[in-house]
Amino acid sequence: MPHPRDRHAIQQIKKKLSFFRVLSLQGARQTGKSFLARDLLPARLKNYHFETLDRREARLFVEKNPESFLEKYADIKTLAIDEAQKVPDLFDAVKLKVDVDTRPGQYLLLGSTEFSKEVRIKESLTGRLGRVRIFPFNYAETQSLAPNPSRHACLLNVDPRGSRKFFLRYLDSGGFPGIFHVRDEEARAALMNDWLRLVRERDLLQFTHLRIVLDPELCQDILSRVALSGEPNVAWISKELGKSSRKVQKHLMLLEQLFVIHKQLPHSLGSGKPRYLLCDPGLATHLGSSFQRKLETALWLEQLSQQSYSGNIEYKMSYYRSARGGIIDLIVEDKSKNVWALKMISEEGYDQRDFEILRAFEAKAKAAGLHVRGLYALAPVSKKTELGSIGIYPWESIL
Q1: Which of 315, 346, 313, 312 lies closest to 329 in space, CA to CA?
Q2: How much is the pTM?
Q3: Which residues of 72-105 are buried (b: 16+ CB within 10 A; e: fewer)?
Q4: 32-78 pLDDT, tens per residue?
Q5: Number of neighbours of residue 204 by Cβ within 10 angstroms
Q6: Cα Rg, the chain, nearest whole Å
Q7: Would you say 37 and 125 are in contact if contact means Cβ atoms under 8 Å apart?
């Protein structure tokens, strides 16, 4: 059972239910979607009902009678349906229903995979469907803190809300609601292994109809390489595993559909290729990631979750790779060609050379007509400092 903490997504869910006829609530397994919809939302929404298609009896009925199932709850203002992707025909029935009745907030559809053709869902509900992605707990949620109050493009706070001690613990334990609070390392490792097993042996079964041979062990190997690699892209993973890039690409796509990994797109000014990060720093720790990789994983989880829960779609996020292989971990860009660049420093003994890539990116971006609004680094410092035009913040400044 997920640890009973409130979720930052709730306000965004309520807001989108007031605009969209159908709202999807999607995320990796055991990120707290069911708990949120079953236990937290009823106190915040009127005339609300929760059903799950995990129950075999309910699923069999809906498979044979999707329209009758919806009609059964016609008097309910908002019907939440967990594991909706398990009955693809339900989406056609929902479309028919909301095309006739255009009231907002009628259905909340939960799932641990993308609602797409890969799980046999043909109806996209375009124009009728809003989305809220549910992530593992970010740091603030594990500490029962309010959402990050920063209005900065990179969500930086001059005065960090978290302590170094608890942030380092978060890097080890992560944010899976049913796992992060377990202090015993062996027990936590066992829970992580169970989570990985269910991804391999149960979640992948949703894709058995595809014209590829699914390889659960290859998925496990890919996740391990994503955790360990300094260049976690298709070419590197394929070379390490001795598998064709086509096969690796297909399995990466499925893991992305299951929200187990995040795809990082390269900035157009760099030399990088799409690369991948795990969805949770605790999972990265379990699979043997370096401290640098755990920091990168936490950075992206914080950015993605907080931007999602605030409904902020103004910014596009990417990473930058120089021709020499140097990395800027986060580039934030808006529609007006304003950019912000942030590099993660993992060691206390850093020096000026660690920041050369930020200055080089600034020059390249300006030459390309972009407006560089800020250069930043996250480092093991106790308070904000400056090195010329670069602001150096404590790791905890993004929390």
Answers
A1: 346
A2: 0.93
A3: eeeebebbbbbbbbbbbbbbebbbebbeeeeebb
A4: 999 999 999 999 999 999 999 988 899 999 999 999 999 999 999 99
A5: 18
A6: 22
A7: no
